Amino acid sequence: MQWRKLRASFALHSRVLDQAGLLFRASVSVQHPIQGSLAFSNERQYRTMPTHGIGKYKHLLPKEAPKKKKERQQMKQIKTATDAEYGTLNVKVSGYDMILVEHYSQYIHNLCNRLGVKVAESYALPTKSTEVMVMPEQGTKMYVDAILKTHERIVQLSQLNATLCPTFMEVLLKNQPEGIQLSVKLHTEADYQARFKARPELEGLMAQMT
Amino acid sequence: MAAPCSRMANRPLWRFITNVRRTGLKHTGVRQISLSSACRAATQTRSKTEGVPSPWKLYGAVCLQRLPVISQERNPIEDQFAELMHQMELERSLLSDHEQRLLEDSERMTRKQADNYDSDEEEADYGGQETITAQDQEDTWEQKLKHFQPALRDRDVGGTPLGSVERCLGDSLVLLVQQTVGKETIWLLPQAQWEAGETLRQTAERGLSSLPEADFKATFLGNTPCGVYRYTFPKEVRTERCVGAKVFFFKAFLSAGSASQKEPFLWVKKTELQRYLKPPYLEKVDRFILNL
């Protein structure tokens, strides 16, 4: 035990001597200042040294919450209508021209921000492709004429004031572009579930369990 | 916007589902709006307050608007800008699938006509000739486009009468009606007097449906009025009971309607309102009609 202590003290002393030597070297030869500072930062000071823990800063920062793993997506609460406000409304914009659809949905979103209507979510539904088949007069076989893609965007509003609603709807209707269909509906859980993909393996397993 | 009427604040709210479609020009020249309402509870009628009735007569009026059917004409500046943007996009864009096909086909044709054409090599690369080239498809499409005749943008080349619904298809029009108020017949928005036991919105609906020889199907948006006009009667008519009248305006959109082209109706743009309405009335009405 004593031998170890001796050894430790010897190591300590040697360290001190080293540092003294370093300091001495630093003061003598200014041409290599980098070496000296590097040597300093690589070495952690011993506990009894006054400079122990000199570079510590993490204890000064505000405490962060421990990072959780991503939780399963929960549905946001669907608000019900009260006397003065509507509940969760889905404003659906659909059409064939994607540029017009997107620009119009962005316009609605910006309008809501400006008027103070809270926008809960703003998402897109998958594009539906429609094939237009043409049957010629002579033959019986139909052939594909064109493929039309229907794009849909949904802006979900949470608290639309009843006094603001007529003006809001009027602005929307008067600014509707050509070829765009606008539809305002109440948000239901079925709408929310329709966004998810069906998982056939999971359903098969569930059916097997029951 | 005028403050909402105090009576309205206590009414239960009507939730509604609106489906609006902007389709091509139809014969009626009117946008289709379908509405299905689901009310939470049956409308409760407010019990009449006991005591002295107020000295103001109440009217409910409806501001029926026909939404524009086609898009508005562009300014010269807007035209120039649109052209400039179009050209910039064209210059910056990449080739589409169809254009790439065209290029490949033309290259193949030139290679075929060259002297050192090796047909076996070509077949191996492309795996059989395609019977329809991209150029052929373009030609067929151009032929189809020639057959297509778009409808005229503005039908009233000759100038349709002011009473027609299909007047200015690019603007929104307001319905004006000639009614007798007091002693004079003046142009105003269709109105009806409020009776006890009904909401003001129902009054407005009644005012619209009671118009002679016209059935307009209107969609009201919400229970709140959009404006109010208050006037006092001239001194001869004024009594203790009725000092004046207050008119509450409700906004509605025309969903389907047909009217015989009779005199009492007018569909006017906002800029033409001042020719028909009286100045104090116009001042209040102007505030809530949007010129979009």
UniProtKB/TrEMBL annotation, chain A:
List residues of the Small ribosomal subunit protein uS10 domain: 90-185
Q: Which keywords does this chain's UniProt record carry?
A: Mitochondrion, Ribonucleoprotein, Ribosomal protein, Transit peptide
Keyword Mitochondrion in the entry? The reply is yes
Which SMART domains does the annotation name?
Ribosomal_S10
Q: Which residues are the signal sequence here?
A: none
Q: Which GO terms describe its cellular component?
A: mitochondrial inner membrane; mitochondrial ribosome; ribonucleoprotein complex
* Compartments where located: Mitochondrion
Protein family membership: Belongs to the mitochondrion-specific ribosomal protein mL48 family.
Instruction: Identify the coding gene.
Output: MRPL48
Q: Keyword Mitochondrion, does the record have it? A: yes
Q: What is this protein called?
A: Large ribosomal subunit protein mL48
Q: What are the leading ranks of the lineage?
A: Eukaryota, Metazoa, Chordata, Craniata, Vertebrata
Origin superkingdom: Eukaryota
Q: Which organism is it from?
A: Oncorhynchus tshawytscha
Q: What is its main location?
A: mitochondrion
Q: Which InterPro entries match?
A: Ribosomal_mL48, Ribosomal_uS10_dom, Ribosomal_uS10_dom_sf
